[in-house]
Amino acid sequence: MKAIVINQYGGKEVLKETDMDIPEIGSEQVLLEVHATSINPIDWKLREGHLQEKLPFDFPIILGWDAAGIIKETGKNVTEFKSGDRVFARPATTNRGTYAEYTAVDSNLLAKMPDKMSYAEAAAIPLAGLTAWQCVVEFGEVKQGDKVLIHAGAGGVGIYAIQIAKSLGAKVVTTASDKNIDFLQSLGADRVINYKKEEFSDVLKEVDFVLDSIGGDVQTNSYKVLKENGKLVSIVSPPDEEEAKKFGVKAGFLWLDPNGEQLKKLSDAYSAGNLKPVIGTTLKFSEEALQEAHAISETHHARGKIVIIMKE
Question: Which parts of the sequence belong to the Enoyl reductase (ER) domain (predicted)?
Fold first, then answer.
């Protein structure tokens, strides 16, 4: 099979096309023919070597942890899925990811795709959508009437967090540049703060929940807008426990836990019209395309998801 791998840590130029064996599957796995995958910051952070302590993988490494495609084979203990099923997943984090024509996926991490969902849409959901779900629903326990602040609303996680929070009945405030204001309002944001013109911590107060996807001063200033016993979750850097205690808030760091049941809930939300994937860039599977996709992601200013199409 064709795969894009890295044989060393480095810049985007270390992404190389190669031929590899089609993976063998275990009794609880399926062999997925990948029709689309997408790019996430974990991809290039691992490529650059920043995650080698947390994820000490052997080379060659196939990056990518979003997949949408068709099941070609099922393990002997798999009963909920069959060959031919259209499915999507955030596979387990191994050195055999989804920048490949085939990948092995644990069956408990799969969800069936709704009939009207395209492979590109499906590939855009798992990692970012599950991260948003676990932040807003699991950690934040956001409910009707809560006031929610989602930083970087136009990013991969932000677009889903806004929609999930709105579907729960929250009032949603987000930060963005002026070019994304109308776009984020179309997703349901009640207020969009142009971070280039306004300091969010000067204009907000009594917030129930903050999703921090930026870190640094943004994380520090987020404590100022939270009400007592409010919650802050970061997906970029662990919050300072003493700082959180000083402001009387619950703060934590979220590292995504892949989950097929939650992905099914995101699938249901899509079918109900409450969750819309936003795809900013679509590229065809090649070494050059993956290098370009990484470069776009590294700017931190991509709107929506960057999707790689393997099969039309």
Answer: 10-308
CATH topology (fold) of 2-125+277-309: Quinone Oxidoreductase; Chain A, domain 1 (3.90.180)
Determine the pLDDT at residue 304: 87
Model-wide pTM > 0.85: yes
- How many other C-beta atoms lie within 10 A of the C-beta of residue 51? 15
Enter the DSSP assignment of 21.
P
Each domain of the chain, given as residue ranges in start order, spans 2-125+277-309, 128-253
Residue type, 182: D
310 Cβ contact list (under 8 Å, min separation 6): 34, 35, 36, 37, 69, 101, 285
Q: Which tokens in the block code for residue 142? A: 């956001």
Q: Is the dihedral of CA 128, 304, 118, 312 positive or negative?
A: negative
What dotted CATH number matches 128-253?
A: 3.40.50.720
Residue 230 dihedral angles phi and psi, to the nearest 5°:
-70, 175
